[in-house]
Amino acid sequence: MINNNKRESINNLYFFRQKICDFTNSQQEEYELLLRQEVSGRYVFPEQLFDEIMTDQELHKLYIEKIGKILNELLKEETAVYSLNIDYQELYYAETIAFLERFNCKEKLKIELTERIPVYRNNKYSELAPKELIKSINQMGYDIALDDFLLGVNSFGSLIHLNPYISRIKLSTLEFKSILELEQLSNYLLAIEAIIKPFDKEIVIEGVEEEGLLKTFPKEWKQQSYYYSVPHQFY
């Protein structure tokens, strides 16, 4: 039984959006959807509530029902493409797969698999990422990205395991910005790109705000950065 406070908290979740910038003269606009909760007049990621939603399937059913209604309504009128974060934990909940199957605007929604390790899973013990589930989502017509590559589940091993079904790699600098100089950070990103280049994946760099560093990146790399786009409320 879901208590009223939890139900109200889920009903009061919002989506912000941040632009993913393409510098190859593409006319297709793209954004990442960012889940937010209002706390003391500020909109922040609802960390505690989100943890509860991910580990309590009854709460998750309510959550996925809410975002399904929002996204079907919003994207119906949109020409932009949106990226939605989905935790691996959610792939083991039947309502997630049902939502993705029923969703009316699959061509406007990319799936970003986040790096968090699931608490409950029923795939083979030796298989960290559920290949068959991800294959089925790809076959529904969704493009799939590995978010925060090299963190958590989203390792090189997972890229190799899931390679046919992954179209995009997102490299985040947030874990390293405080410990690496700009030149080191640039070298790190370029080294990772060189290693994954044979996989022929689209690359998005997330969290770089320094103009000088941004200018060193190949124009084929997409950018998600406060330098170019501050998140703003979408719903």
TrEMBL record:
PROSITE patterns: EAL. It comes from Lactococcus garvieae TRF1. InterPro entries: EAL_dom (IPR001633), EAL_sf (IPR035919). Residues 1-235 form the EAL domain. This is EAL domain-containing protein. It holds the Pfam family EAL. It comes from the Bacteria.
